[in-house]
Amino acid sequence: MPAVVVASHGDMPEHEGRFTIYVIVCVIIAAFGGLMFGYDIGISGGVTSMDDFLKKFFPVVYERKRHAHENNYCKYNSQSLQLFTSSLYLAALLASFAASRVSSKAGRKRTMQIASIFFLIGVILTAGGLNIEMIIIGRILLGCGVGFANQAVPLFLSELAPPKIRGALNISFQLFVTIGILAANLINYWTSGIHSHGWRISLALAGVPALVLCLGSLVICETPISLIERNEVEKGRQVLRKIRGVENVDDEFDSIVHACETARQVKHPFRKLMKPASLPPLVIAILLQVFQQFTGINAIMFYAPVLFQTMGFRNDAALASAVITGGVNVVSTFVSVYAVDRVGRRILLLEACVQMFLTQSIIGVILLKDLKPTGDNLGRGEATFVVILVCFFVMGFAWSWGPLGWLIPSETFPLETRTAGFAFAVSSNMLFTFIIAQAFLSMLCNMQAGIFFFFAAWIIIMGSFTWFLLPETKGVPIDSMVDEVWKQHWFWKRFMVNDEYKAEVKVV
């Protein structure tokens, strides 16, 4: 029998409910949207390091790679090669705003279905690609799928979860992202030995999580909040009973109805986001996405095999090193699942800043000292030590900025601006992911070892932001964020002077 969980905070009423098996099933199926995203992050770097792929689509890069005298940092410097990776995220940026409207009007479940269909069509085009135009179009459609999934899935998870374990359940999205990255690295390691068409297998298998999400979304429920928001009130009550596992859901149901009635009074949610009282969650949501990318994590995850080859690893060793870092990523995310609702969000973010700053700085020093633009690569011992440092960097990110970058924006917006606000978070993430993906190989070529100091400097900035401006939201029901978080914070409370949230939004 699942344990009873009770949502309470301060003077808020307690809501009855159990953590049911049905909720677990819904969470797992929805989280396959994260696996879709993670698989693509991991697969692109491995595919772009495969000779068969380069010979077919990027012959200039392939010839440059073969020349031993070529600059160690510039072997893969190609705007078109970077566009193969980054085009997906530019498409996701644009799709996220359309996904916001679809999520509000059609629901989180339908948005996830649309995401899976976009992704499946994109998989067909990329895996069956005959020319560069075909695979770029495929990547754009994959990006539309990512934009829709990343908009709907975190909201779905936050709205389905009881407040007491909201953090842990929401992090299942990031957990599945890391599993997707690891799966992609393992598959790339296997397909790299299948010559002439191994890259096609790698790209085709991206369709597996998309198919699971597409079929699974037929059996999961819509969230009660989304149903009531769209005037399916009685159905919302029935679903609420089903996911809580109890008959008495009146208090929670009434608070959701009240929230939806308040939200309906806001006819222009994007305009509402520009009001002073909406700025605290909006600014934090956007900056978390910017900082998440400027840790340097996606530079490592996108191009891990390429990066390790730059450091002197052979192709199979580079792919194996990427598998190792992918495994560390998955295991470390479980730390966040365990700790986020126990120690809080801020502690995890601050600890990780120290850890990531030290590892980035040490890697930079090693490369600056021992990896010259031309000549010998790193020695075996040094290269192994760099892989260990990369693993420690990935650990810190995986239990902090990775999952919390999605969790915090999903829990801090009130209902009337939730989908619009989260659209800004998703689009900001995709914009800066696009920038890093498009620029990293060129930055590596021009900045060389200095690129690691560049990311380390950003980590100092984000640590300062967390210390001074990021409030703790552990255990605070979404409907209490204004009174218990924003109005109590030394800086953000000044934006609440007009009390635009006087009609308090009641959302669990």
From TrEMBL:
Keyword terms: Membrane, Sugar transport, Symport, Transmembrane, Transmembrane helix, Transport
Membrane topology: Multi-pass membrane protein
Intracellular or extracellular location(s): Membrane
GO molecular function: monosaccharide transmembrane transporter activity; symporter activity
Transmembrane segments annotated in the record for this chain: 19-39, 81-99, 111-130, 136-157, 169-187, 199-221, 282-306, 318-340, 347-368, 383-408, 420-441, 447-470
GO cellular component terms, semicolon-separated: membrane
Domain Major facilitator superfamily (MFS) profile: 26-474
PANTHER family in alphabetical order: SOLUTE CARRIER FAMILY 2, FACILITATED GLUCOSE TRANSPORTER, SUGAR TRANSPORT PROTEIN 6
Family named by the database record: Belongs to the major facilitator superfamily. Sugar transporter (TC 2.A.1.1) family.
NCBIfam families: SP
The protein's name in its UniProt record: LOW QUALITY PROTEIN: sugar transport protein 8
Organism: Herrania umbratica
Gene: LOC110421269
